[in-house]
Amino acid sequence: MAAAKLWKRYCENFKYYPELGLSLDISRMNFNDGYWAKIFTKCKQAFLEMDELEKGNIANPDENRMVGHYWLRNSELAPNCELKNEIDQALVEVKTFAANILSGAIKSPTGEKFKNVIYLGIGGSALGPQFIAESLRPQKPELRFFFIDNTDPDGIALTLNDLEQELARTLVVVVSKSGGTVETRNGMIEVAMAYQRRNLDFSKHAVAITSLSSKLCKIAEAGGWIKILPMWDWVGGRTSVMSPVGTLVVALLGIKLDEFLAGAKAVDIVTREHNMRTNPAMVLATMWYYAGNGKGEKDLVVLPYKDRLLLLSRYLQQLIMESLGKEFNKEGKVVNQGLAVYGNKGSTDQHAYVQQLREGVKNFFVLFVEVLEDKVELTNNTEKAVEVEAHVTSGDYLQGFMLGTRLALFEKGRESIILTLDKLNEFSVGGLIALFERAVGFYASLVNINAYHQPGVEAGKKAAGMVVEMEKILLKFFDNYDVSSKALSVEQIASEINCQKEDDFETLYKVLEHLVANGRGIERERDERKPDLVKYKRSR
Amino acid sequence: MAAAKLWKRYCENFKYYPELGLSLDISRMNFNDGYWAKIFTKCKQAFLEMDELEKGNIANPDENRMVGHYWLRNSELAPNCELKNEIDQALVEVKTFAANILSGAIKSPTGEKFKNVIYLGIGGSALGPQFIAESLRPQKPELRFFFIDNTDPDGIALTLNDLEQELARTLVVVVSKSGGTVETRNGMIEVAMAYQRRNLDFSKHAVAITSLSSKLCKIAEAGGWIKILPMWDWVGGRTSVMSPVGTLVVALLGIKLDEFLAGAKAVDIVTREHNMRTNPAMVLATMWYYAGNGKGEKDLVVLPYKDRLLLLSRYLQQLIMESLGKEFNKEGKVVNQGLAVYGNKGSTDQHAYVQQLREGVKNFFVLFVEVLEDKVELTNNTEKAVEVEAHVTSGDYLQGFMLGTRLALFEKGRESIILTLDKLNEFSVGGLIALFERAVGFYASLVNINAYHQPGVEAGKKAAGMVVEMEKILLKFFDNYDVSSKALSVEQIASEINCQKEDDFETLYKVLEHLVANGRGIERERDERKPDLVKYKRSR
Q: Is B357:B321 a contact under the CB 8 Å cutoff?
């Protein structure tokens, strides 16, 4: 493409949104002029579906739930007064509670202010909080944040031991909408035990964010926890950042919560416009559609050129892949939809895998995220920018590397989008989240799937439950088995415990090996590690 | 597949390596019996090529370099005595230096022991150190590690401000093989400035790891830095973890460096065997080949079920994608090879994107990484495992979720491999690195590409350099431009500075906007944000 033509295409496909402090450039996606006419009807339908969704129509039929994360930043839009009041009330509670923690009106049992927070959750209850805590961390927060987001006992111990004596001044926020998420429950039990071992009263440190009818809620009520904040069934985990799940993080960081919500609200307003060429969320959705041929044929590589945005790709991985990765379309036809997302940050990733992006498999497109202003107010860095060469700053190089990579990719026919934020702050990060939430909603309409359920997650959970049940049976079996009896092979054990289901021998073997490795009363007869030959017996 | 058949397949395709404490299971990759015969000749060739490589034959013809990372853990194999001595000598130096830092024989200028380390590098000089520092962190390291791995001035300021008064007790390790990596140089300048602002002598905190003829080496020599450790041109950045780049991290963490190297050496020995069915590195390579049809048609999703291994996927992303993402094969034919890698950790990711893995686009296969022993010695956790239900631990659930997810994926025809470590420690992590290094080397032979260069990285760097040059010209132009003169459009400025190359208008616009946003003496005439209409003038 000649220079003049490229420049013309750039000017036509670059749009700045003054009310958002955000611009979007899709000039290096190689769609042609006919593309918009082709996708027009789909976009129109997507706009209508989104309007219906926001009005509170049931959009998650599997679970018979409304989808209401848009109301969280503008409660006026909630479909009725009760919901509006609940949203407003929760926000007041979050603000008051956080202010009390920060001021010391609510003190730790030592009589001193709380100094640390453990946020305990997984998936939608962890990634949003982590992304906020990293992207919007002020230089000297009153509270240090720690996250426990898995059921790995070593990972939990590592975090707890890091805190050690400080546990007495640590707030523990347990986040689970259903209150039944096993990883979170396990983490909670492990943390509560650590408090108990130190003769500390866990309930005086504990906060729950959960549905008001959940098991977790009942535990918190019965235990007299410091605070219970609500989660609602009309907010999905992956879109829960503007509910107490995320707003509590913002408030405890002591940064501008109203700005965070205002940024999202402002994006919502702009992205309600029924114009596929100018609505930035629809522009993103149409570009994803174009890139992957409406079938997710290309991965989305997210490259923010800003250290604070490192977790954006992980956040989007969840938001996008869990929403769009679906087997069936709305009519029940098998479609195997989705859009794979990965990436870390630039220019760091240029020294990792940009080699493959430029030269290798052409199975991706890039979303560059740029921040025009190098300094971030939250960092409270008052120094003048350092010149690394005469007149040149590190920030100039950061931009240079981004533009250079974009050019290098374009030369080889690799497509990219640039999303530019004027500044990185509470407003723009809130906006970023809202922008992608709506882009995902639009894209789901374009490909005719339900973005708001996650049926595929259940199967793994169920299977995991069965594995744990099998483990209990095995433990009981060996507990009753005579120490001096003959060692048994996997197949013999299977027969003894009446286990014949497909896959079960293998699972049995894996579970036995795990029990042996952890000194759980079972040992190998010899150090034989062949699944069909190894024999197990009760440890003496 | 019937239960009996699956179990048989499992037993046949499961292999334990006693000398490594590692097992590999490829039973749920759906290759058929004929696959091995088909790939036999390629594997044979790959074994021969690897033998040649290890003997020191030039394997990176672009750069006329040998590839010698295998010698780092077994210097006996180095092709000559000089190299052997250099390797041995460097290891002694690393150990002695780290011991002196840890003992306080080398003190910080305050007269106290060093307390923190900033590791300053990017790509191969950062990801390995980060992966080690996270996966092998002892519970109470003498030194806390911080990483600066980008040219983002805000990210650098955030880290430096976190350290603040502690800079006086902070060691700064600058890692750059060539000594010319701009991001690292910028970071070094910013850090040195921070020391200067606090009236601290940077050179009394600074350590260089670099080629002994590099620019960085000269700076370090001239400045009288505390220590200079060698990097060699026969070690690629992405395989440099066993050179001082990584061994210094291990040594400064105060953990078992010899075990770390021994783990890698043990894997090297096992993976030199010319048997495609039992050599675990070749087994991995053949499975990648099978999954992606030898063309990288499927992404590799890396799911370690262990918090400490969170960065494994990022480490592998670099190692695999930079090595395998190539435009040309060895004969110069365009092949656009590669293998895209992403993932974080289980079971956390089950609540993020496993929905898509089970139901969505079938464009991936999974590598599960499991650790049989739940406790990690490095954590120094002496507590008995907590029971989260009667007889069940968090670790049981962790395994349950992994096996459950594997089953759930298999039900839907999604393939996976399980790599199991008996324990997570210095030996096994060293081994893991060596295993993947060799798998990558084998795979490159299978698809007939050079794994040891990265020609695609240069283009982006060069283009970035041009962007920064353009910025300098712009700054100079406006510096000489009369404040009261007319504001100029992008096209007018282009013409004034004689810039006509393709793409340049767009780059010019982007650079101008960045300069405006950062108060660099240029402003917009009005707050116009349309690239073809906006006009710029010198700030008063």
A: no
